[in-house]
Design goal:
The structure holds 2 protein chains of 2 kinds. Chain A is α+β, with helices and mostly antiparallel strands. Chain A is built from 4 helices and 5 strands; from the N terminus they run H-E-E-E-E-E-H-H-H. Chain B contains 9 helices and 2 strands, in the order ααααααααββα. Classes of the chains: A alpha+beta, B mainly alpha. At the A-B interface, helix 1 of A face helix 5 and helix 6 of B.
């Protein structure tokens, strides 16, 4: 009986200490990790979907409150007009969250481009969503007001072969981005005027 | 019978060098050694986990009940692996991108659990640190050697470390006319290289 109690106590204390330490460290490193992600993953993704923009989308960013959460937006200037905004969303993939950057033209509500950023999908299968430009380019020119689905689910997006779950995650992330966009569009347009 | 700190440290560098003598921990050995830099990064991450889990296991060895020791070891190891992962994301993000899924996999690396079970749970803290450092550095050297071999012949390069601004290493070691064997950087090349290195080490060890 005594042995039983010791076992439970030791395991519980150990788990609690470990949990406490990790959540502390996570909070301590969160802002640093965000900067690193912006520099090495999101930055290049934003630059590649906003190819030809005359400003630096990473520098021209702002945040808006959407209910409780704060969302970040990046601004793109084309032909002298500040008409493109990049928003961030994510979907549930095979190995965790799949982060997506969606660039939208606010004048005609069309998608300028999408890019997968952070993910933990299988290399060679799901990870192709990030590496193969063909998949992401399917979203180009589609209206942001649509809900996106892969062809298996009756939509228009051709899934990556062997990675339907990842493809669905990207579609749901894009649809989420659409919802955020619709909800915040008036505020977005206000904000964009400041970047003229 | 008691061994000295130096003996415990140096045994990991040659006599019990993990991937070659014990043929343990082969998942990262085969998986990440496409370049020397990846090998060094993975080796250092494993060394970090190994040393700290050894310290903790050794200091708690009289508290942990024998029946649940493996579960306790895994909690300790997993904690340090997540610590490594978070620190790497915060301070060495490009390396984290390259090593990817292999960092969380350190949890199930049998070298780490093996040292906790076979050594740290029976010895004091100082000896356990020496053991962890020795085995860890031996593991790093093995990964670096295998990575160097594969990178040298597979990509004609030798990178030691990449900083955000520059690359420390040699590009095009054999000159521009050398056609790299891309076989070497693919998975079968890893097996062949490891086999050849094992063979050489056994030849050197046999009398």
């Amino acid at each position: 009986m005594r042995e039983m109690v010791t076992m439970v106590v030791v395991l519980t204390v150990l788990s609690a200490l470990s949990g406490g330490l990790l959540s502390g460290l996570r909070n301590a490193t969160a802002s640093k990790i965000e900067v690193q992600q912006l520099k090495f993953v999101k930055g290049p993704a934003i630059k590649s979907i906003l190819k030809g923009a005359s400003n630096d989308p990473i520098a021209d960013r702002f945040a808006l409150k959407d209910g409780e959460v704060e969302r970040k937006f990046f601004v793109g200037k084309f032909d002298g007009k500040t008409n493109t905004v990049v928003l961030e969303s994510s979907g549930k993939g095979y190995g965790g969250d799949v982060g997506l950057m969606v660039a939208v033209n606010v004048e005609n509500d069309q998608i300028v481009g999408v890019g997968v950023t952070t993910h933990s999908e299988t290399p060679g299968l799901g990870a192709t969503a990030k590496d193969d430009p063909g998949f992401a380019s399917q979203f180009k020119g589609m209206s942001i007001k649509d809900a996106y689905k892969v062809t298996n689910d009756g939509g228009k997006i051709n899934a990556i072969s062997g990675a339907t779950i990842t493809s669905r995650a990207v579609c749901s992330a894009a649809s989420d981005a659409g919802m955020i966009y619709k909800k915040l569009k008036p505020q977005l347009e206000e904000k964009l005027k400041e970047f003229k | 019978m008691a061994k000295t700190l130096t003996q415990e440290f140096t045994k990991g560098l040659w006599e019990e060098i993990a991937p070659f003598r014990l043929v343990l921990g082969l998942c990262p050995v085969l998986g990440v050694t496409t370049t020397m830099e990846n090998g060094i990064g993975m080796g250092l991450a494993t060394t970090f986990v190994l040393v700290f889990s050894n310290i903790l296991v050794a200091s708690l060895r009289n508290v942990i009940p024998a029946k649940v020791r493996i579960a306790c070891f895994i909690i300790i190891i997993a904690t340090f692996v997540v610590v490594t992962e978070l620190l790497m994301q915060a301070f060495a993000y490009p390396l984290f991108l390259k090593l990817g899924v292999f960092i969380p996999l350190i949890v199930v690396n049998c070298i780490v659990l093996g040292r906790a079970e076979a050594f740290a749970s029976k010895n004091d803290i100082a000896l356990s640190i020496a053991d962890g450092l020795g085995i860890g550095i031996g593991f790093t050297l093995s990964l670096a050697a295998l990575g160097a071999l594969r990178e040298l012949f597979g990509a004609n390069n030798l990178t030691v470390w990449t900083t955000p601004t520059s690359v420390i290493g040699v590009q095009e070691v054999f000159g521009t006319s050398f056609e790299p064997f891309s076989f070497m950087v693919q998975a079968p090349g890893a097996f062949v290289c490891l086999g050849l290195m094992l063979c050489v080490m056994n030849l050197m060890g046999s009398k």
